[in-house]
Amino acid sequence: KCKRERERERERERERERERRRERERERERERERERERERERERERERERERERERVFTLSVNTMLFSFEAFELLIVVVVV
Predict the structure, then answer these.
(1) What are the start and end residues of every segment in region (Disordered) (predicted)?
(2) pLDDT(28) > 80
């Protein structure tokens, strides 16, 4: 009787240990998923920053063209007058 009881207790302890290992593994997986999500967010932020830079360059180019055109018009006015 005592021997069987000890054996059952050891089995319960082994089961608790397996459960603790499974829980640690689940926690590691959740942490890996959180890290993947943080990395995706960093990539989205980098993409938004690239988009803002493209818009800035485009606006600068358009402004430069407009300025060049206005300068050319002014030159025509000066030459004509």
Answers:
(1) 1-54
(2) yes
